[in-house]
Each structure stands twice: as structure tokens, then as C-alpha cells.
């Protein structure tokens, strides 16, 4: 009995994991294929290969006249095409997945930073720089947010938290540089969660170190705080669950208890009209559709209550 239960639990876990993997792959494919689902992409691919194989078989049998031989060669052709297609698509898919994961992580980090106050962003930068450079930084004042020392060299950091659309201007850098030069600090660093005006990195190379959002993400990765593949998959699954809830809500607006009588009344009216007009067949179809919606609404409401009851018991 125990073995049977453990086998059932193992099977359930396996099926759950397979479903999870399919949902993740479905998410990636929708991103890559412009909204097409996993099943749609798979079906399209199989149909195209089947048509190719069928045409190949027709040409082969017309040339040779041997049905069995043509069938065997055609099946070998199909398996070869499937294997080659899978290998090529797998490479492209994995490359795209890396890009999508990068975008997901970047958006996650952006979202986290957007919730920070200016002081919180300064502390965020401080923690990253202390781990990345192995230096202890202290808060400063005015145009300098943080100062630290390494090998008798004083470092100064200025943080700019802004929107992703804004760019840090030359004036912002110049004000910071003037302050650094006045105090006599050896190394100045400007950090932003956005980007700098075009050409500024080249202009200030060797004078002021400019750290934009991409450089900040790189540092996060280097200190080991970059979200893992498993973290990204959890984000994808959570998005899938949110979308599922939204779809369920939209279904609820169509299939609800309040709509049952409306659908029945509409069905009755359409049926009466079908006996009075020349388009009787059209009205009969619409009456049948309205009646079907009423029946579905009744079952939907029942299952919703059943699911809610099971959730409460759990």
C-alpha cells in the first residue's frame, strides 16, 4: 500500500514538473514566435514536415514505381528532417532563451530600483561596491554620496537615481568632478540606474568612471547576487499563474450566474424570431448558441463553487 502511494505521489510530482516545464517553454515560444503557443508552433512544424514528406513520397513513387521502397525512404527522410530541425531549432531556442532571461532579470532589477528612495538607492550601490571592490564606504555630503579608501587612494561615488528614459547630463558629471577636484580625491565614480548622454563615457575616460545600469547589473552578477535560472523560471511561472487568473476572471464575466437568465431570454427571443423571418436558419443557430452559453454558465458556476469549497477545506 505504501509503495503504491509513494509511486502515485512520484507520478503526480513528475506530471506536475512536466506541466511546469511545458508552461515555461510555452512562455519562451510566445516571446519568440510573437504570441504563438507551444502547441500551435509544434502543430505548424509537424504539418509542414508532413506535407514535405508527402510531396517527397509522391515524387519518389512516380519515379520508381515501388510503393514500399518509396514509403521507407520517405519515412527516413521525415526522421532526418525532424532530427535536423530539432537540432537547429534547439540551438536558436537556447540562444533566444538567454536573451529573454536577461531581459526578465533586467526588468526585475529595474522594478526593484524604481521602488527605492534616493537614500535607499545610495545604500544599494554602497552594498554592491563594497562587495565588488572589497572596500568599506561611508556616507559623505553635498555632491558626493559615498567615500572609501583603498591602498591610500580615496574613492568618491555620486549616485543618480532617475527614470530609465532620462539620461545623466554633462552638467551633472561636471559638478561632481569640480567637487572631487576641490577636495583632492583620486578616483571619482558616478553611478546611475539609467544611462549617460551619448559620448560621455569616451569623453570622461580616465577622468571619471561612469557606471550605468548595464555596468551595475554586471557587478551584481559578479558578486553572485544575480538571479539564477531557477529564479527566472519562478518569475515565469508566477506570471503564468497571474495570466491564468485573469483569463479565469474574463471567463467569469461571460459564464456567470447572472448571465444564465439573460442567455435563456435571448435564446427564447431568437427562437421566436426564427419563426417570423426569412432568415430562420440564422436565428435558430444564434438561439442554439445562446442556449449553449446558458448551459455552460450553469456548469461553470457549479465547478467554481466546487473548487472554492475544496480550497477552503485545504
From TrEMBL:
Biological process annotations from GO: DNA restriction-modification system
Transmembrane portions of the chain: 40-61, 67-88, 260-279, 285-303
Record domain Restriction endonuclease type IV Mrr: where: 116-219
Entry-linked Pfam families: Mrr_cat (PF04471)
GO MF entry, a single one: DNA binding
Keywords for the protein's UniProt record, in alphabetical order: Endonuclease, Hydrolase, Membrane, Nuclease, Transmembrane, Transmembrane helix
Protein name per the record: Restriction endonuclease
Native organism: Anaerosalibacter massiliensis
Amino acid at each position: 500500500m505504501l509503495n503504491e502511494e509513494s509511486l502515485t505521489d512520484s507520478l503526480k510530482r513528475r506530471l506536475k514538473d512536466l506541466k511546469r516545464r511545458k508552461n515555461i517553454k510555452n512562455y519562451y515560444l510566445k516571446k519568440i514566435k510573437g504570441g504563438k503557443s507551444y502547441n500551435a508552433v509544434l502543430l505548424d512544424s509537424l504539418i509542414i514536415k508532413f506535407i514535405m514528406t508527402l510531396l517527397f513520397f509522391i515524387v519518389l513513387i512516380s519515379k520508381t514505381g515501388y510503393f514500399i521502397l518509396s514509403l521507407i525512404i520517405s519515412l527516413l527522410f521525415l526522421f532526418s528532417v525532424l532530427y535536423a530541425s530539432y537540432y537547429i531549432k534547439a540551438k536558436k531556442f537556447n540562444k533566444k532563451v538567454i536573451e529573454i532571461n536577461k531581459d526578465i532579470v533586467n526588468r526585475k532589477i529595474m522594478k526593484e530600483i524604481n521602488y527605492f528612495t534616493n537614500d535607499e538607492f545610495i545604500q544599494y550601490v554602497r552594498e554592491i561596491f563594497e562587495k565588488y571592490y572589497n572596500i568599506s564606504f561611508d556616507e559623505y555630503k553635498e555632491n558626493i554620496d559615498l567615500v572609501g579608501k583603498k591602498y591610500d587612494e580615496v574613492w568618491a561615488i555620486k549616485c543618480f537615481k532617475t527614470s530609465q528614459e532620462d539620461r545623466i547630463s554633462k552638467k551633472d558629471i561636471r559638478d561632481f568632478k569640480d567637487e572631487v577636484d576641490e577636495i583632492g580625491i583620486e578616483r571619482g565614480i558616478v553611478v546611475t540606474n539609467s544611462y549617460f548622454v551619448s559620448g560621455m563615457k569616451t569623453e570622461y575616460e580616465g577622468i571619471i568612471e561612469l557606471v550605468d545600469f548595464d555596468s551595475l547589473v554586471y557587478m551584481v552578477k559578479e558578486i553572485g547576487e544575480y538571479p539564477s535560472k531557477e529564479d527566472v523560471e519562478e518569475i515565469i511561472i508566477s506570471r503564468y499563474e497571474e495570466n491564468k487568473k485573469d483569463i479565469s476572471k474574463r471567463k467569469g464575466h461571460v459564464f456567470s450566474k447572472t448571465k444564465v437568465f439573460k442567455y435563456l431570454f435571448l435564446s427564447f427571443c431568437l427562437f421566436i424570431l426564427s419563426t417570423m423571418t426569412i432568415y430562420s436558419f440564422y436565428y435558430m443557430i444564434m438561439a442554439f448558441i445562446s442556449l449553449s452559453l446558458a448551459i455552460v454558465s450553469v456548469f461553470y458556476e457549479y465547478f467554481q463553487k466546487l473548487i472554492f469549497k475544496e480550497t477552503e477545506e485545504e
